Amino acid sequence: MRSRNLVLLLIFISQSILAQTVTEMPLYPAAIPGAKISAVKEQIIFTNGGVRISSVITPTLTKFSPAKANGMSVIICPGGGYGRLAIDHEGVDIAKAFNQLGITGFVLKYRLPNDSIMVDKTTGPLQDAQQAIRMVRQQSAAWGLNPAKIGIMGFSAGGHLASTAATHFNMLADQTTKDTTSVRPDFAILIYPVISFDDSIAHKGSKTNLMGKNPTADQVKLFSNELQVTKNSPPAFLVHAGDDGTVPVENSIRYYQACIKNKVVAEMHLYPKGGHGFGMNNKTTNDKWFDRLTNWLNAIQ
Questions:
Q1: Global pTM value
Q2: What angle do CA 30, 31, 37 make, to 5 degrees?
Q3: Which of 19, 123, 202, 298 has the maximum number of C-beta atoms within 10 A of its C-beta?
């Protein structure tokens, strides 16, 4: 069943390709730091026309190369409450859209927090995000990319991971590495993101999956990323819907306010409706947030 699912996933990705060249690569060249040997198996589920991946054991980075690259790249973290990955409409579809702009897209299949497969599940996803940034920066010359134009993007819980990478780059999740390559992203794109673990606005599923049922006050503060923004945080672009019943819009608002307070360049687009998980297309409006993002990316170059 697993091999059949893998074949179906590869077919799905191949059918999504236009002029792009797609390459899936292991995130780590050898052993995965902090990993445990486990009987857990990766699951690929096709549901309601979408693709979901859970129980990720071996993280990968899939590079979508445009026909003519402009040097900018974005690492994309799909959402799914830190319990699964919406790899299609919050991953592959986004990389395809970036390719139309000449931007190289990287879809990150990151490990989801699980005590069975990692020594510290609170830092496992961040370790993968930091390794992805490190990898792209190290290979930038070979791939024709600008090492100073590497962004990170995330949806929902993937937005929490992206905002963690944007605020915790001085905290190496893999404390065994001797690599000094910078893991600071050059910009962050946060789409209906989980930002805060303040109980009043937290997405409880993401909070529990990442930190367990009884996190300490220090853990909650550490991973409430509106509290971790500094003047050195990268520019941020945020999108959210006011009627989001899953991740309250206050998550984006607090991050935006933290950016303004710390004089970090930020732009936020709030739509009155759209709910949660709309991906590229908020059907309640004719305005396309990806067009707004395109303008912003052109402005920060």
A1: 0.93
A2: 150
A3: 123
